[in-house]
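Collaborator request, handled under Task 6.
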Amino acid sequence: MIDVSYEINGRKVQPNQIGEALENAALKDIVKQLRNKLGRVKSSTGERLKITFRGRKLSDLKMHLEGPEELIEKAEQILG
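Structure tokens returned to the collaborator:
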């Protein structure tokens, strides 16, 4: 008999939860990458963006940026 187990990001996952676990891992990675990219954006006076993410699934993930217009424009340029 073959023993098969699944791990995603170092955590064991039941076969019936693989889809949810993959989506959660992808969601966390996307948020991390966006925070890293946009976290470097700052104004000439040192102000930074406030970045807020809402949503529990990729399908309803929303990002909200707060800060001076200069920073929001820089962020939009980075995001394309």
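The cover message to the collaborator said: "Residues 18-39 form the longest helix (22 residues). The chain is about 40% helix and 20% strand. Please let us know whether this matches your experimental observations."
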